[in-house]
Write a structure and sequence with these properties.
Elements: H1 2-11, H2 19-26, H3 30-42, E1 46-49, E2 55-58, H4 67-74, H5 97-117, H6 121-130
Antiparallel strand pairs: 1-2
């Protein structure tokens, strides 16, 4: 949802966009979008103004925003997690499985974020525009 919202803001090329407009594009409630925008604002990916001329816009060029930044802005948990219950330490597998999985999952998380960092929001927009579905600068 965060990439979708930021893609709409990129599509609007600096024009301020309301949470109602973004919610209509994502097909959700504006309150959900406002919460998401708060996370994106804390990560300095968007600027939001209230009152006259209200709305949000990107804080920098889509070429300077990558998907790893977006992911870190909105995800507060690791993608890979071990069970909350500790395994049986007397078991030959149970005594070392948590540490083993932790290393594997940390490596996978790092690889995923490294891969996401290779793709900018502008790359996403290029793919969206290349699909031929979008037409007209101001529509979303």
């Amino acid at each position: 949802m965060a990439v979708h919202v930021l893609a709409v803001l990129a599509y609007k090329e600096g024009d301020r966009v309301t949470s109602a407009f973004l919610a209509a594009s994502v097909n959700t409630n504006p309150v959900v979008i406002r919460r998401l925008l708060l996370s994106l604002q804390k990560s300095r990916l968007v600027e939001t103004c209230k009152g006259v001329g209200s709305g949000s816009r990107l804080s920098r060029s889509p070429r300077r925003i990558n998907l790893a930044e977006i992911y870190r802005a909105v995800e507060d948990t690791e993608s890979f997690a071990t069970p909350a219950r500790k395994p049986n330490a007397a078991c030959p597998v149970g005594h070392c499985i948590t540490e083993t999985l932790f290393r594997l999952f940390a490596s996978a998380q790092s690889a995923m974020e490294k891969d996401l960092a290779k793709t900018s929001l502008a790359d996403v927009m290029d793919a969206v525009k290349a699909s031929g579905v979008c037409s007209g600068k101001k529509a979303a």
